[in-house]
Amino acid sequence: MFNSFSERISGIFDKLRRSGVLKEEDVDTALREIRIALLEADVSLDIARKFISEVKERAVGQNVLKSVSPGQMVIKIVYDYIVELLGKSEPINLNKSPYKIMLVGLQGAGKTTTAAKLANFFSKKNKKILLSSTDIYRPAAIEQLKILSSKVESTVFLQNDSDKNLSAAEIAKNAIRNLKETGSDLLIVDTAGRLQIDEVKMDELAELEKIIQPDEIILVSNIMTGQESFNVAKRFSEVLKISGIILTQVDGDARGGVALSMRSVTNCPIRFLCVGEKLEDIERFNAERIASRMLDMGDIVSLVEKAQENFSQEEAFADIKKMQSGTFTFDDLASQMEKMSKMGGLKMIIKMLPQSKQIQDAMAAQGLSDKTIIKNLAIIKSMTKKEKSNHKLLNGSRKKRIARGSGTTIQEVNKLIKQYENALTLFKRIKKGGGFSKLFGMMR
Fold it and tell me: Is the pLDDT of residue 441 over 70?
C-alpha cells in the first residue's frame, strides 16, 4: 500500500541522515519533497499542508537543528505526527453480549468478504457469531455470505433463498430473533452496497439502524477509491452514527494516503485493515505499526504475531534441535517454506522488516521471490524420501529426474541444493559458537 510513498520518504530521510548539520533551508527542502510525496499518495491537500506546517513548527520550535543528530530528530517528529494523524488505535471491545455490528459502504468496497473476515477474526477469540445479509439487490449476495460463513468456525448463517423475497427490514428483524435463539455472542450484518450515494438506500440504512440498534456501525472503504472515499465517508457520517472504519485492498497498488487522511476527515478511528483475499487476511489497525511501515522502519511486532499464529513454540524448538544436531532435512526446509507462505509469503514478510526496499532490491538481484519458493517446493516434492534425508545422493541423473518432475531446470535444482548446503554450514558455525545454547536460553 505504501510502496511508492515509502520509497520517496526513504530517499528524503537518507539525505537528512547523511547531513551532520542541518540548516533551516535543508528542512524546508525536505518538507517540500515530503509534501509532494503526500499528495502523490492521495493525501488530501488540506491535510498535506497542515502536516508540513506542524512538522516544521515542531522541528524549528524544539531547537532540533542544534541537536546532536538533527536528521534523526526530524524523522522522529515526522513519525510522531503520522501516528497522531492516524489516530489512537481503538480495537473493538466486545464488552457486552450479544454485540451487534452493522457494515455499510459503497458497492465493491468488499463488505461481504469483510463480514466473513471479521467473523473469522472473532471466532478465534472464542466468540459464537451470527452472520446476516440484508443485501436483497445484488444477485447471489446472500449465497456468497452463506458460503463464506461455512468456512468459519463457531459461525452460523440461518438465512435461505426465500429471504431474497423479504425486505431488508424483515431480514434484520429475523436476524435479531435468531441472535437470541442461537445464543450468539456477536451479530454481524452485511448491508447492500450502492454505486453512488443513493437517498432511497440511505433511508433504508437509517431504518436498519433503528431495527438493529447496533453497537458499532463500521464504514467499509476500498483504499483504491482514493480521495473520493472522503466524500463518501462524510455522506455516510451525516446519515448514520459511524463508529469506525475498515480499509480493504490494503495489499493492492493503491497509494495509501486514504489511511493517513481518513481519521481527520471522518473523526472516526480505523479499526481493521484487510491485507489480502483469504479470510485470515485481516489485521487490527495500529497507528504506530502503520507509521513504521510508511517510513520503511519495519513492523517486527506484527511479524512476530504472524509467526505465532502459524507455528507454535514447540515447532520452533523442534526445528532448532534439528539444526543443532545436523539432522535438518529437505523435508524440514519445505516445512519452513510452507510456514512462510502461510504468513503471507516472502513479499509480505520483507515488507515488515526495516529498510525493506533495500532487502527487496537485493533479493530481486539474486532472483529470489515467492515464485522461487513455489519452485523450490516443487523440487523438494519431486525428491524421494532417501534424497530428502541425504542430499549427497543427488547425482547428475537424479537431478535431471527431479528437474523434469518439478518442471524446473537442473540449474534451479543445483541452486536449491547449494542454498541448503550453505544453511547446514551456517548451522554448524552457530553451534560451534554456542549460538543455539544462547537462543534456547532466550526462548525458555
Answer: no
Asked if pLDDT for residue 444 goes beyond 70, the answer is no
Task: Kindly state the helix (H) or strand (E) to which residue 207 belongs, with its residue range.
Answer: helix 199-212
Eight-class DSSP state of 249: -
* Beta-bridge mates of residue 218: 103, 244
Task: Tell which wins on pLDDT, 74 or 175.
Answer: 175
The pair phi, psi for residue 99, each rounded to 5°, is: -105, 140
Is residue 250 left, alpha or beta, with left meaning phi > 0 and alpha meaning psi from -120 to 50?
alpha
Instruction: Give pLDDT tens digits for 89-109.
Output: 777 888 888 999 999 998 888
Looking only at the bridges linking them, the beta strands covering 99-104 and 216-222 are: parallel
Look at the alpha carbons of 366, 299, 111, 187 in this order and tell me if their dihedral is positive or negative: positive
Contact 268, 237 (CB under 8 A): yes
State residue 436's pLDDT score. Answer: 45
- Domains annotated for the chain, with CATH where assigned, are 3-86 (1.20.120.140), 99-297 (3.40.50.300), 303-443 (1.10.260.30)
Q: Other CB atoms closer than 10 Å to residue 395's CB: what's the count? A: 8
- Positive or negative: CA dihedral 25, 31, 36, 37: positive
Higher pLDDT, 255 or 56: 56
How does pLDDT run across 78-93, given as a tens digit for each residue?
888 888 888 877 778 8
Q: Is the Cβ–Cβ distance between 119 and 155 less than 8 Å?
A: yes
- Rounded to whole angstroms, what are the CA distances from 182 to 59, 124, 144, 350, 393? 57, 19, 21, 43, 59
Phi-psi region of 88 (alpha: psi -120 to 50; beta: other; left: phi over 0): beta
Number of Cα atoms under 13 Å in the Cβ half of residue 325: 9
Grouping H, G, I as helix, E, B as strand and the rest as coil, residue 155 is strand
Contact 298, 349 (CB under 8 A): no
Continuous H helices in 256-369: 257-266, 287-294, 300-310, 313-325, 330-342, 345-351, 356-365
- Cis preceding-peptide flag for 98 (omega within 30 of 0): yes
Give pTM, 2 decimals: 0.68
Q: How far, in Å, CA of 136 to CA of 172, rounded? A: 12
Which pLDDT does position 208 carry in this prediction? 94
